[in-house]
């Protein structure tokens, strides 16, 4: 039966990719039978959900549906951001990740920056995401701690679209030194064209960014424009969709009066907007 399913997978992915994925599934520590794993992949389920993990820099991040799977382009700019912060910051950073998902961005920052230099918080509207991010914090060794010599990350369930965010009772409060976000940025026309492996498995709330894909950038810009929300010299780093960089730059320059620059991803696409006060 496995050979039949593998033939179906080869027909879907091509022989080379199917053989590679089959090797990864055979090596997986999952309790799911190999035949079931193959059947799920043939049905179009993302490999990361089947393997239940995704490499992210030196970390192994646990993933499960419907929480957004960490992408290579996100890994790329997070590593670059950590390298910039390593060179430029000598103080302990208070970090807020908006729409944290698996927690991959702040956890990679915790991993790459000096011990005791990062206290990170993640916000997500999804209870599944908050639970998974909390689990990843423990797996990566960055759970909340009273030990100030350790980096730490803590996730909370909340919506940063709420005008009253952050609530006093939430457990996280400004000012912050760094805001990061890979927000939902898929526009309605793009959402209708998403491949089955994305649209049928990953949370729409983590993908759809409004009719033009820019709703969450407006919300983030309004947040960071608030008095005392950011410390002097704070940085905002947001991932953007293909063709959105110029629009997101304008949002931050007009709404938050911040200076901006654009970072390219490994495929030379304008992927990240960096804003500074």
TrEMBL record:
InterPro entries the UniProt entry points to: HemK-like, Methyltranfer_dom, N5-glutamine_MTase, SAM-dependent_MTases_sf
GO biological process: methylation
A GO MF label: protein methyltransferase activity
CDD domains from the UniProt entry: AdoMet_MTases (cd02440)
GO-annotated cellular components: mitochondrion
Recorded superkingdom: Eukaryota
Keywords for this protein: Methyltransferase, S-adenosyl-L-methionine, Transferase
Pfam families per the UniProt record, alphabetical: Methyltransf_31
Methyltransferase domain span: 93-145
Identification of the protein by name: S-adenosyl-L-methionine-dependent methyltransferase
The organism of origin for this protein: Mycena belliarum
Record lineage: Eukaryota, Fungi, Dikarya, Basidiomycota, Agaricomycotina
């Amino acid at each position: 039966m496995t050979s039949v399913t593998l033939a179906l997978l080869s027909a879907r992915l091509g022989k080379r990719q199917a053989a590679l994925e089959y090797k990864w599934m055979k090596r997986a520590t999952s309790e799911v039978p190999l035949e079931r794993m193959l059947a799920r992949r043939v049905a179009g389920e993302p490999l990361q959900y089947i393997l239940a993990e995704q490499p992210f820099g030196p970390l192994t991040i646990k993933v499960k549906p419907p929480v957004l799977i960490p992408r290579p382009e996100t890994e790329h700019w997070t590593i670059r951001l950590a390298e910039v912060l390593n060179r430029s910051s000598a103080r302990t950073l208070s970090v807020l990740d908006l729409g944290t998902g698996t927690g991959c961005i702040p956890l990679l920052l915790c991993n790459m920056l000096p011990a005791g230099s990062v206290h990170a918080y993640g916000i997500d509207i999804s209870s599944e995401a908050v639970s998974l991010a909390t689990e990843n914090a423990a797996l990566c060794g960055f759970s909340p701690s009273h030990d100030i010599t350790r980096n730490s990350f803590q996730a909370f369930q909340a919506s940063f679209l709420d005008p009253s965010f952050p609530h006093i009772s939430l457990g996280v409060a400004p000012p912050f030194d760094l805001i990061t976000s890979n927000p939902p940025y898929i526009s309605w026309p793009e959402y209708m064209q998403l491949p089955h492996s994305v649209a049928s498995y990953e949370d729409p709330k983590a993908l759809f960014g409004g009719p033009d894909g820019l709703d969450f950038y407006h919300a983030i810009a309004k947040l960071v424009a608030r008095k005392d929300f950011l410390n002097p010299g704070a940085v905002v780093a947001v991932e953007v969709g293909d063709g959105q960089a110029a629009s997101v730059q304008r949002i931050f320059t007009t709404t938050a009066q911040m200076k901006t620059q654009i970072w390219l991803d490994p495929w030379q696409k304008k992927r990240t907007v960096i804003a500074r006060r």
